Amino acid sequence: MEKFTVIDDKNILIHSLNVDPSKLNRELVEKGISVISLTKKEKSLEDYYTNLIGGIKNA
Q: Which of 18, 38, 46, 58 is an S-S bond match for 54, by CB 3.0 to 4.6 Å?
């Protein structure tokens, strides 16, 4: 896995759209990491531009 961020002790954010969820799950379990769920989220174009200008308060 190239780029990821550990959010807390129960959440990891993976910065890639090309991850096979079944392969990811298998690799995590093989390394002793319990997986409760995998969720794919994509930001909208609106989210992208809102973050670009510094968030809602600056919009």
A: 58
Say if CB 12 and CB 6 are below 8 A apart: yes
| pLDDT higher than 70, residue 58 | no
Which residue, 39, 32, 29, 31, is CA-closest to 7?
39
Both tokens of residue 3? Answer: 């780029």
Tell whether the model's pLDDT for residue 30 goes beyond 70: yes
Please tell me the number of Cα atoms within 13 Å of 16 on its side-chain side.
Answer: 12
What's the whole-number mean pLDDT along residues 31-59? 82
CA-CA-CA-CA torsion for 24, 19, 44, 55, nearest 10 degrees? 60
Q: Angle at the Cα of 42 (from 35 to 7), degrees rounded to 5?
A: 45
